[in-house]
């Protein structure tokens, strides 16, 4: 139940094993956050949520599916990410560790030391970090080498760097966790994204992120699976009989549907599951692109706008506490630089969202524009259209995004390690044959499908034993 990338991945894994599978999706189109569309002008293509895919392009599960035969191909921008500063300087993230490090001045050796070995070993390392944390690692020494810095608060790890461009570059990626950067493990998601990016880059899916969904859905159908859209399930009595049921849903939604069928301890944990800050999204149609002052930003697929590390840490702390900052952290996507077919002539799609408090009811459009203007004077005059999606509209678009929480749950230490409840099997819902496979489970958010793949393997073990 739920046709996001994890639901589809779980369905494909089951179907490949010979199981008869039906996907039930409440929306009129599968994909969850991995959808795209023409929001402003005909032919101008915008990603609805997920946009760049450093974790998906190297996904161990996707690699064996042959999704290229179903139209999925990747496109890389010249520069993965830029983080401009008020001084006119900028941190610039390239796929190459060496090229990135060489642009960080006094922090060149520190960046190389932190990312060189883990990036080279990432394909082996991902076997451990892209799954449940509470298990025996396949590569314990490599995991220990990578894992030690992830335990640190982002604010502590940032002190390893002496230049503002390196601190800000790291902080902007660490902020993807939507967590205060003074908390333990607040380095983990940032280090994971950076390491994966140094191995595989930050590509986009040609033709929009919807291409990932389209490929998975087509493969599933070829394997004999079925997909039913507009399938609104509010109670377990509405579910068809099945040997196994997997939920690509936020934990509270699973608890609401299963009701008293859930063991009390599981229901209690799912109902108490914590959601993090929200995303306020604005898509722009921009004539001739954004006039960035930073040369690196003009060539970067992603641009992080938050100023110094100290400013980022302050705004993330405010947002987590429910206060809307005057200058929120803003992510900007220029996917068209890697995938020009998304543009219409000289009008280009610009993908942006700001970190805001969960359930924020205000309008963050002007703060987003102001942040872009801060580093690209004249941007406002180039806007020819925009489409806004508030935190409420984000939750309506995808019910897993409670209060605009697009990463499906606060990625604090407990939920990052344990998932939706304390157990050695984070995919089990405590009922034989019933599982949860959303981004609330390890390894967490992204269009990599690994949450669904792991849950499906757990379900297959159950079927082998009891089916």
- What is the percentage of strand-forming residues? 5-15%
| Second rung of CATH, namely the architecture | 3-Layer(bba) Sandwich
Q: CATH superfamily assignment?
A: FAD/NAD(P)-binding domain
How many alpha or pi helices? Answer: 19
Mind telling me the C-alpha Rg? 21 Å
CATH topology: FAD/NAD(P)-binding domain
Poorly predicted sequence stretches spanning 5 or more consecutive residues:
none
Pairing-aware structural class of the strands and helices?
alpha+beta
The coarse silhouette is globular
Number of folding domains? 1
N/C terminus separation? 20 Å
CATH C-level category: Alpha Beta
The total beta strand count reads 15
Strand order of the largest sheet: 6-5-11-12-13-10-14
Q: What do the pLDDT scores average to?
A: 96
- State the major sheet: 7 strands, mixed
Helix content: 25-40%
InterPro entries: FAD/NAD-bd_sf
Organism: Saccharopolyspora halophila
Protein name: NAD(P)/FAD-dependent oxidoreductase
Pfam families: NAD_binding_8
Topology diagram in text:
Blueprint: H1 5-16, E1 22-24, E2 36-37, E3 46-47, H2 60-63, E4 74-75, E5 79-84, E6 90-93, H3 97-102, H4 108-120, H5 122-129, H6 140-150, H7 154-158, H8 164-174, H9 188-200, E7 204-205, H10 210-222, E8 226-228, E9 245-247, H11 251-258, H12 264-271, E10 278-287, H13 295-298, E11 300-305, H14 309-320, E12 330-333, E13 347-356, H15 365-375, H16 379-382, E14 383-389, H17 391-397, H18 413-418, E15 434-436, H19 450-466
Parallel strand pairs: 1-8, 5-11, 9-15
Antiparallel strand pairs: 2-3, 4-7, 5-6, 10-13, 10-14, 11-12, 12-13
């Amino acid at each position: 139940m739920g046709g996001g990338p994890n639901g589809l991945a779980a369905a494909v894994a089951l179907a490949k094993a010979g199981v008869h599978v039906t996907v039930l999706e409440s929306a009129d189109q599968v994909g969850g956050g991995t959808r795209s569309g023409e929001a402003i002008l005909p032919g101008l293509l915008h990603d609805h949520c997920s946009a760049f895919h450093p974790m998906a392009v190297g996904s161990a599960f996707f690699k064996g599916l042959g999704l290229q035969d179903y139209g999925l191909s990747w496109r890389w921008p010249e520069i993965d990410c830029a983080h401009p500063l008020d001084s006119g300087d900028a941190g610039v993230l390239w796929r190459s560790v060496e090229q990135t490090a060489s642009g960080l001045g006094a922090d060149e050796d520190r960046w190389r030391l932190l990312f060189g070995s883990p990036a080279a070993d990432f394909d082996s390392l991902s076997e451990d970090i892209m799954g449940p944390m509470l298990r025996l690692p396949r590569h314990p020494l490599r995991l220990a080498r990578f894992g030690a810095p992830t335990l640190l608060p982002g604010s502590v790890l940032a002190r390893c760097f002496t230049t503002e461009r390196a601190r800000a570059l790291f902080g902007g990626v660490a902020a993807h966790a939507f967590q205060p950067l003074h908390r333990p493990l607040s380095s983990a998601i940032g280090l994971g994204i950076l390491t994966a990016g140094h191995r595989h880059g930050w590509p986009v899916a040609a033709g929009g992120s919807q291409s990932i969904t389209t490929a998975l859905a087509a493969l599933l159908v070829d394997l004999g699976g079925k997909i039913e859209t507009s399938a609104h399930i509010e109670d377990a009595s509405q579910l068809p009989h099945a040997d196994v049921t997997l939920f690509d849903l936020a934990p509270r939604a699973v608890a609401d549907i299963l009701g008293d069928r859930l063991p009390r301890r599981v229901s209690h944990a799912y109902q108490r599951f914590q959601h993090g800050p929200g995303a306020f999204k604005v898509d722009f149609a921009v004539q001739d692109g954004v006039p960035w002052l930073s040369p690196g930003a003009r060539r970067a697929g992603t641009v992080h706008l938050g100023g110094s590390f100290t400013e980022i840490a302050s705004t993330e702390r405010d947002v987590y506490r429910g206060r809307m900052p005057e200058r929120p952290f803003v992510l900007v996507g220029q996917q068209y630089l890697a995938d020009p077919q998304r543009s219409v002539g000289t009008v280009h799609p610009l993908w942006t969202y700001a970190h805001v408090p969960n359930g924020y009811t205000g309008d963050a459009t002007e703060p987003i524009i102001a942040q872009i203007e801060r580093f690209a004077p004249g941007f406002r005059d180039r806007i020819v259209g925009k489409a806004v999606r508030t935190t409420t509209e984000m939750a309506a678009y995808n019910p897993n995004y409670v209060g605009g929480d697009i990463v499906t749950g606060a990625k604090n230490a407990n939920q990052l390690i344990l998932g939706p409840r304390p157990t050695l099997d984070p995919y089990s819902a405590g009922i034989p044959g019933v599982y949860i496979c959303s981004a609330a489970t390890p390894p967490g958010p992204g269009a990599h499908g690994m949450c669904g793949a792991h849950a499906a393997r757990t379900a297959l073990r159950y079927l082998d034993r009891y089916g």
